[in-house]
Amino acid sequence: TVADLKGLKQGQLRLAVITTAKYIIPRLLGPFCQLYPGIDISLQVTNHERILERMVGNMDDLYIMSQVPEHLDVHVKAFLENPLVVFAPVNHPLAQEKNIPIEKLVDQPFIMREPGSGTRRAVQSLFEEHGIKVKVKLELGSNEAIKQAIAGGLGISVLSRHTLLTDSSEFSILDVQHFPMKRTWYMVYPSGKQLSIVARTYYEYLLEAAKKIVAQEVITSVPQ
Ligand code: PGA
Fold first, then answer.
1. Three-state SS for 173?
2. Which residues line ligand 1 at a C-beta cut-off of 6 Å?
3. What is the pLDDT of residues 75-108, one digit of tens each?
4. How remote is the CA of residue 192 from the centroid of ligand 1, in Å?
5. Which residues pair with 45 in a beta bridge?
6. Dihedral of CA 89/90/94/95: which sign?
């Protein structure tokens, strides 16, 4: 029976995901574990640079990241969009403005992710492209800490829209030109590596789960 077949899928699944993916991956693990009770999971949540280190050290089965490693030979599959948006406190003076020129961001105290963060790198390259220099008031190593700092009135920031999933009432998303920045979540693993049955099962599961999420129109898909 199907149930027996599922029972055959046993073992450990080691996942390492960038910080923005923690807003969705753990949730999707629930139904996966119900389908495959024999699979145990370890999930590491860390920034882009640490993910690269883990990949080089072959520490996990599968990685989720937003920026494909440039100097590693990897297998890559896009599965969901991960747009970056400008977060501000809900009552911010710019909250009602439309089509805000990106240059206006230089007047705002800015909260930046730590070095090694892919979000930081994407934000910095956008600002460089437009020749603007924001005033970094605070540097923080976590999306959640940044959200608390924004809610506390310390400044604005650029974060993945996924980080808003649970508590949207405290924040506004500013309508700034060139935002949302288009980014994508990819499932990645080294080309030379053969996925275990367990990892392959998860890989297929996540692709299907992403399609369902898109169908519910919560998040936009990416072209395959
Ligand atoms: P980060 O990853 O945690 O390294 O910023 C998020 C991303 O790259 O989208």
1. strand
2. 18-20, 47-48, 66-67, 82, 113, 117-119, 160, 183
3. 999 999 999 999 999 999 999 999 999 999 999 9
4. 25
5. 17
6. positive
Q: What is the ipTM of this complex?
A: 0.96
Number of Cβ atoms within 10 Å of the Cβ of 23: 19
Which residue do the tokens 């599965």 mark? Answer: 79
Burial of residue 93, with CB atoms counted within 10 A of its CB: 0-12 exposed, 13-18 middle, 19 or more buried: exposed
197: left (phi over 0), alpha (psi -120 to 50) or beta: alpha
The torsion of the CA quartet 185, 189, 190, 195, rounded to 10 degrees, works out to: -160
- Which one is predicted more confidently, 219 or 202? 202
Neighbours of 28 (CB within 10 A): 17
Non-local CB neighbours of 83 within 8 Å, separated by 6+ positions = 160, 161, 180, 181, 182, 183, 220
For residue 41 the two structure tokens come to 């999971």
Q: At what angle do helices 197-215 and 25-35 cross, to 10 degrees?
A: 120
